[in-house]
């Protein structure tokens, strides 16, 4: 099988390491370059001893990499840095970006949510939104794909088919979400110290401030053909991986279940549980699966959808590989059918 030559920028971060872990057993990808910033010059097993069994290139600064020998580049860098880096890469290089820089179509929306003007607007326009199950055809022919926010992916898996089918009240949607701490990346932050995190939970970016609302607004309004604004309450939980979104909608619960089950019947990674069964993050850790459950609320005419996925796989690096498979003409599930880790 052809081995596509892969570079990973930001390989010393959490999503970068997850890309390496998954690509290590991919049948048609070979890692030829890895980048880091502070950790440039180090071997991967110095940064991540859990990858010691692999023979990997040394971490380099981005400007030391020869991209002429690369077929596809995963970019797992912080937002804002990303647009500068991608703008300087060869224009024929296929890129799957994991940051927020190319997710929003409208430059004004980017500035609103990220607090600064976009400096590569033409790339922003070129990028295809990377929620694979809903953008497959565009992703197959794209050069630049923008991976979704991990929370944004979870909420969209619960809601997109319901909005498309017109079975929920569009003005009555609440996404209450719990996220694991690896979603915040590997750089040191005081509030993420074990002593300050492990004993409790708290909300963050409440009151309509979370940046993934930009993705919800963009995508839900596009599907509905009119503005849709959801309510969103993110919480940080003292767990490493995983997101659980509890989504409250005004709708017939059986119709909600039937709509999701039908929409995802042929999807290899999206699993709808029997009516009334609800999923747990414990059942998807380390895998590219998203589990969804539906139950009737106590108040008639209301339903609750619960969606879970792993932020480092289906929420970022697994999704990125799924998109790269399509861009390279490989089987979409290649390298991704790993079972979750349990317990
Ligand atoms: N973590 C998650 O669950 C998700 C993350 N994302 C997005 O993916 C991207 C990567 O996230 P994550 O892996 O968590 O982040 P980390 O903070 O864990 O890693 C960031 C990586 O970028 C490198 N880096 C930082 N600054 C620079 C710079 N100025 N120039 C070059 N390289 C730099 C770091 O290198 P070094 O450490 O050597 O300094 C490191 O390799 C982010 O945009 C994030 O928002 C998207 C979905 C989910
Ligand atoms: C726990 C935590 O902090 N999670 C991050 C989501 C990670 C992600 O999807 O990041 P980007 O949108 O920045 O790429 C958050 O809620 O902002």
TrEMBL record:
Cellular component aspect of the GO annotation: cytoplasm
Q: What does this protein do?
A: Catalyzes the NADPH-dependent reduction of N-acetyl-5-glutamyl phosphate to yield N-acetyl-L-glutamate 5-semialdehyde.
Entry keyword annotation includes Cytoplasm: yes
Biological-process GO terms, alphabetical: L-arginine biosynthetic process
Keywords recorded for this protein, A-Z:
Amino-acid biosynthesis, Arginine biosynthesis, Cytoplasm, NADP, Oxidoreductase
- Could you tell me what reaction this enzyme catalyses? N-acetyl-L-glutamate 5-semialdehyde + phosphate + NADP(+) = N-acetyl-L-glutamyl 5-phosphate + NADPH + H(+)
Kindly indicate where the leader peptide sits in this chain.
none
Domain Semialdehyde dehydrogenase NAD-binding: start-end pairs: 5-142
* UniProt-listed InterPro entries: AGPR, AGPR_dimerisation_dom, AGPR_type-1, NAD(P)-bd_dom_sf, Semialdehyde_DH_NAD-bd
What positions constitute the catalytic site? 150
**Location within or outside the cell:** Cytoplasm
From the Swiss-Prot or TrEMBL record, what is one GO molecular function term? NADP+ binding
By sequence similarity, the record places it as follows: Belongs to the NAGSA dehydrogenase family. Type 1 subfamily.
Q: E.C. number, please?
A: 1.2.1.38
Chaperone keyword on record: no
User: Which spans are transmembrane here?
Assistant: none
Q: What is this protein called?
A: N-acetyl-gamma-glutamyl-phosphate reductase
According to UniProt, this protein's pathway is: Amino-acid biosynthesis; L-arginine biosynthesis; N(2)-acetyl-L-ornithine from L-glutamate: step 3/4
Per the record, the major location class is cytoplasm
SMART domains the record matches = Semialdhyde_dh
